[in-house]
Design brief:
This protein has helices at about 15-20, 40-50, 75-80, 95-100, and strands at about 10-15, 25, 30-40, 60-70, 70-75, 105-110, 115, 120-125. It has four helices and eight strands; from the N terminus they run βαββαββααβββ. The mean pLDDT is about 90.
Length: about 130
């Protein structure tokens, strides 16, 4: 989403777009994603039941090409609505206690996190700038 500059995190395959009554715009390029899982064949489940042990599963990877909904047209409006922006600041009691216990001056603003030894303060960007 960030790499492509898209306003939403909603993604779908070409077939999913068609099934929703839309289409991918001509010339748009998709992004590859991989799906990893395990599959247990029915015959293996039956064999394990008869022999009284655990069935063996087969791991697999499947690759899909997906498109952001912003690359499509004719989709239902509900899919195109961007997510609500994050609040400027959420209170996390444990983090607030930690900050208070340090006795440090803690400032919020800018686009970088840093400590200024000469002035003895910590500055961090607003919470929406953090992903984790």
């Amino acid at each position: 989403m960030i790499d492509g500059g898209y306003p939403t995190q909603a993604w779908l395959t070409f077939r999913q777009a068609l099934a929703l009554g839309g289409d991918v715009r001509k010339g748009e390029r998709g992004y590859s994603v991989c799906y990893a899982d395990r599959f247990t064949p029915k015959s293996e489940i039956e064999r394990a039941r008869i022999q009284g042990d655990e069935p063996n599963s087969i791991p697999f990877l499947k690759r899909f090409t997906v498109f952001n909904v912003a690359q499509c047209e004719g989709l239902p409006d509900a899919l195109l609505t961007p997510a609500a922006p994050l609040p400027e600041r959420q209170i996390h009691a444990e983090a607030e206690r930690l900050i208070k216990a340090t006795g440090a001056e803690f400032r919020v603003g800018g686009d970088k996190a840093f400590y200024v030894p000469a002035a003895d303060y910590i500055q961090v960007p607003p919470q929406p700038a953090f992903f984790d």
